[in-house]
Amino acid sequence: MSAARLRLWCRGVVQGVGFRPLVHRLAADLQLVGVVENVAGAVRLDLQGERRSLELLVRRLPQELQPPGALEPLAPEWLPPLVPAPPGLRISAASAQPLGAGLLAPALAADLAPCPTCLAELHDPANRRHRYPFISCSQCGPRYSIATDEPYARAHTTLADFPLCPACQREFDDPTDRRFHAETIGCPTCGPQLQWQGAGDWGADPLAAALALLAAGGILALQGVGGFQLLVAAGDPAAVARLRQRKHRPAKPLALLVADLEAIAPLVELSGPERLQLQHPAAPIVLLRLRPGQREPFAGVAPGAAALGVMLPASPLHQLLAEGFGRPLVATSGNRSGEPLCLDPAEALDRLAGIADGFLLHNRPIARRLDDSVLQVIERRPVLLRRARGYAPQALALQAPPGTALALGGDLKSAPALALGGRVWLAPLLGDLAGPLPQQLLSEGLEQLLERHGPRLVALACDGHPGYASHQLEVVAARRLGIPLQLVQHHRAHGLAVAAEHGLPLPLLVWACDGLGYGEPAGTSGHRLWGGELLWLTASGAERWACLRPFPLPGGERAMVEPRRAALGLLAAAGPEALGHPGAAACRAAFSPGDWQLLQQAIASGCNSPLCSSTGRLFDAAASLLDLCQRSSFEGEAGLLLEGLALQASLPQVAPMPLLPAAGLELGWLDWQPLLQSLLNAGVAPQESAACFHASLAAGLASAAAQAAGRLGATTVLLAGGCFQNRLLLERSAAALRAAGLVPRWAEQLPSNDGGLALGQLWAALADLSIKK
Amino acid sequence: MSDCIQLAHGGGGTLMQQLINQELRALYADPTQVLHDAARLELPPGPLAFSTDGYVVQPLEFPGGDIGSLAVIGTANDLAMAGARPLHLSVALLLEEGLPLALLRRLVASMAAAARACELTIVTGDTKVVERGKADGIFITTSGIGAVQAPTPIHPTAIRPGDQLLLSGDLGRHGVAILAARHGLALVPPVLSDCAPLWPQVRALLEAGVRIHCLRDLTRGGLASALHELAEAAVVELAIEEARLPVLEPVARTCELLGFDPLHLANEGRFVVVVPPQARDQTQTLLAASGGAWIGSVRPASKGARVLLTTSFGTERLLLPLSGELLPRIC
Ligand SMILES: [Fe+3]
Ligand SMILES: [Mg+2]
Ligand SMILES: [Zn+2]
Ligand SMILES: [Zn+2]
What we know:
The complex is a heterodimer of chains A (773) and B (331). Chain A contains 22 helices and 34 strands. With 773 residues, chain A is an alpha/beta fold.
């Protein structure tokens, strides 16, 4: 009999996933004594018993931990046994550390949709939690959204004020119970309660009041997981129209909440992997292609779009609502146009007063704001379009170079990232830094991160655009702390993010296609606004091999919301014949004759008409010429409508995209003029033109990449940037690259738009650093 | 070319004497006055304000004004922003070889008229000529002295949370006029610069007994930059309401079309005034005649010195100062 004492630090996803109960169960099995405690994001074991039993524990832990739990490699430390041995096995609560803005909270787990066992209990009339909207266990329930402090423990969540009733306490203390140390435990006796604010005296049954409101076509404000949501009946076009009008959201697709997938299965293409993603504990919105012939099955929900966003209930409360209503519901973020989600019931009652007809509230406060995550399945693999609830704050599944570094990402879709101990954390999407709240969260979060990691930080990174708020914040921080600041060119960062995610070594070719990013033109004649760039990413930087032929954007930033301006810029760059072409009538008609002339004069005299090589603006131009969208009410509207239209076409024509020689570029400009000519051609149906646009662009990108790859000896081509969230463009580009013998890769775990920019910035900063060594 | 400025005009010889005596005399209130190197001034008792500014605007003439009127009114307005009645100005002219004399004559006449409008006198001056290519036609520097009439110091440090912000008139006309002239844009109807003396409005406020905490004229960078400078200097948060900002329809339409924000466009005859809450209504009444309006209020800088704009939708966004290059931020 050889007594031994083991100290084991367990890192990874180990908090809020039933890890300590697992340790407790194993340790009790193996007759070990000692302490298990949460410490600074990890779980520390200090156990004593037979050496063989301790070794068995080290082997069994990684095997028996259920997803989403995940353990990093263990490094056992053997200590002299304590005499006398500890009296028993104890799970200890560590002291609280305020989480603050909690932008990046490596210690915490993401919020999880109800597990099958909890759902069964929810539906079991004999269970004491029958129809209890806050049922959860050690495998499911809210986590990050209710965390107020670290490490994860009930006292460090917004459930701290709900003392357990004797029945719940017994479950919590019983190592054999599935709610042993389930920090979110609660029941109708001791846990949070629903509350109704709205018409009708429903006091006793808030859920019934909410369902009655929805059935009557009313707009329901629901206190959801990471913030308020607005719900209406998806099958009630008048209700949907009312929601759109009150929310000032005229056209952007809305997502559906359904209790089960059979309700929508006849309308959409639903593959096995898509089902799996829908049923994932993160409960994301999954974009599902409409079946052929299905055009807008729910009027006004996703006008003109090729796909429908669908999600399963993310919480037991959503489950009860969705199944109680029995038909699809629209679920959209509970905010006023341009503002962040409401968190607090009082705030919601005030700010959503002009939108919602009733409020389904509860008394479990939301501690941090999380939007619904969005993904689509490409080639049977999930591709995240928005990474927030259910994913954040978990680490990305990739290996980072050593070194602690922080990157702030972009401005429009702010999501900073932290590299620490070979792992990377990406903050949940904060939103647009033009808003006071996102900017405040970012600057507070940055301060806290600097306080915590400052001494170990080897690099700070941000975008090169001097007007970005993130850039300005980081410049100040770097100066104050004396840490080197890396300004990472926007499209290099987009490319590096994909390389990092797939663990691909440099050099690599990337087509970075997005809206607009701050460029680094060689010489003074080049344009600053990039967005369609073929880059050769090397360890030391990026060589620009080709870009879209530049065209002016009359009105500068106004062109971001008015596709008609991109079209005018394209026509003006093409020449007088294009401007006067009958095929440009739709774009011309979108302006008054005076404005049409004045903007041409503005372009000619260089009045706020910067040149750009943006793929997103090329999409805009095509959408304007086809009269799909002259002014957009949300980002990416032109591309979404163009894709929706293209999917109605047969096999498209392909216009050539030749390369024109251009100073400073190995291959030159990818010319859109032949494509423009074919868009102007009046003899072609609009859906054929839309399909031709996607096919020609994909073929043009692939052919330029193939030329560069041939000369560089490259075999892989990365497809990066927001434009590749367009599924048709991505799939066609990937196919064209494969046909040219190349291997395409794209972002999957993180958005390919600016929401994933910070990862690329981190990579650039850490790589630049290792070169300098 | 005798109808243009030549290098010899700055040489100190007869040509220079001719230039001063024939072309520049009109600047002075008393054209018969014998000029000397320095002016001797009789000043009223009490504190004085003293200010200087350089003017380099292009084009030199624009709808509603020119570099000459701007150079006089601009410095007079800087004095008014200290609560001072403008009294006297000095003028330094930097002329480029080749500047048409006819243009110079028009600018001089314009300066003289502006001086009369501001009720100040130009008392001394200097003229230099530089080679072709070394200046952009004409640069003007003016310095001015004024008599402070405000009973308490008018300064950003006098700003307090709770104070009210008012604007003296509509926004953006000067910026639009300059843009149109610079780029040959034929605006229908044309937009004229707002270039105008500010002292009459300030005097009206002082005479009515309004306790002015701070004044700031809107020049380059427009209202947004002016508010940022105030917020940072006073360490406060300024909250303004978009719907309250007076912008004339042709200006709003042109800004919208050309992609400019009226809040960022230059003005030459507008100011923001910060007053204690109890003076708000009176100030508004006094400014209303000239198109002025209440636009917002001062709050404690709980999240740092910043400027918030409540949009017409009722949502808030941060109003950022113009950062050098005008480049879209959006990806
Ligand atoms: Fe981008
Ligand atoms: Mg000055
Ligand atoms: Zn569960
Ligand atoms: Zn209970």
